[in-house]
Amino acid sequence: MTTATTSNKEFAVTKLDIWQIFARYGAIALLIVLIIAFSLTLPAFATWSNAINVLDQIALPAIVAMGLTVVLAAGEFDLSIGYQTSLAGVLCVGLMQKQGLGIPLAFLITVAAIATIGLLNGVLVAHFKINSLVATLGVGTIVVGLNFAYTKGIPINLSDPTAFVGLSLGRFLGLPIPIYLMVGVGVALWIVLNRTPVGHAIQAVGGNAEAARLSGIRVKGIRLFVFVIASVSCAIAGFYLASRTGGGSTNAGDGFLLSAFAAAFFGSAVLRDGKFHIVGTLIGVLTVGVAFNAMSIAGSDTSLQYLFQGVLLIVGVGVGVLARRRSVTR
């Protein structure tokens, strides 16, 4: 009898739970299916040069999305990331064109200025207890105002953009520089979130802020930190976004807001049970990038890209949630 009971328990544990597998790996399976389908139907898609092109195109949105992931992991939101990215682009170009600064100094000042915006977000949320949705929406609107005050709504272009443009168009070992930048930021943020006490504290605050506080974690400091991290990511992405054209536009990075949230939430349905993490976000960005690239090759209308992004987010997260519920109730 005892042997039979033990055998049944072992069978229950080891039994293939298709719903649990689907919850964890369904989004990855979707990405693989998309790549196979596009490769079979679009000959221009399945080429090495196009694969590099996809990675190059997603590099900057991925950096912003990964910065946002750190904020989401702490249980907060940041609706100002797109506007910060736009401001970073015009600020760095303006510092070079109007103030005559060199590229390194313009970069450092841009990072410091945008990080200050993140610090403001953190102060409003952590010290003044303002809901992060409201606080960052307000700060984002202020950033738009600062952007227009600085540019008068007119794009700023460098008179000699050669060296600046070279930062984005340059290659190392055959790969565009932004790809290395994306990988570097991803590895750094993954280590911070998964291999440092600060990262463990971020996830503890995101899980239960009050329990984290009672366990001795400085919740206010953690919230300040995550918003600054997100802003630094925006500064880096905005700087390189401007370097793609040698000029800064007042709304060049605004669209990164939607794509970053879509990627982060889609990625939360990958590998982990609804938790935000860097690898999942990268898979989310890559899934959207692959689809956008294929649609572009096929000559689809731009509106279809946004429709796909919305549907992908709903289906990816929705199916993941459904699969987890079915797995629990089995």
Model description:
The protein is mainly α. Helices cover 78% and strands 2% of the residues. The chain contains 14 helices and four strands. It has helices at residues 2-14, 18-41, 48-73, 81-97, 103-126, 132-151, 162-169, 177-195, 197-207, 209-214, 219-245, 256-267, 278-298, 302-329; strands spanning 156-157, 171-172, 175-176, 247-248. The strands form two sheets. It has a two-stranded antiparallel ribbon with strand order 1-4. Helix 2 (18-41) packs parallel to helix 13 (278-298), helix 3 (48-73) crosses helix 12 (256-267) and helix 12 (256-267) packs parallel to helix 14. The longest helix is centred in the C-terminal third of the chain and has 28 residues, at 302-329. The radius of gyration is 22 Å and the shape is globular. Residues 1-6 have low confidence and may be disordered.
